Amino acid sequence: MNYIAKILMNSLYGRFGMDDNFKHIEILSKKEFNKLQLNNFNVYDIIDLDNNYLIQLNSNNLDTILENGLETHNINIAIASAITSYARVFMNQFKNNPNYKLFYTDTDSIYINKPLNNSLISNNEIGKLKLEYIAGSF
Fold it and tell me: At 90, is the secondary structure helix, strand, or coil?
């Protein structure tokens, strides 16, 4: 269950932090295409398909103009930023600690020259570090 929670949290972080500047591909009749004011969009490509056009453009606000329903990407940069900010604050206790020689760190892992205090380690408690292996001798 903890593994599932970890995977979900990692996926949600990626989802909240993704770039939603998607390109949108649409087939429009030439009549619809002429009504569409393309100066509001970044048009990347237009292909003539006899009575229709295949267009590729930036999708920002396109949903309201094409009346294809609301397109939601469910992103929130503030949530993604809060997650990485909290990770940086948490990991600073190892980065700025003269008792450890730090070799590597990222948002959820560290490589240091000696064992951590047992109160910081748990294989199944969310928010604690998991001891995956000890490299070499200290």
Answer: helix
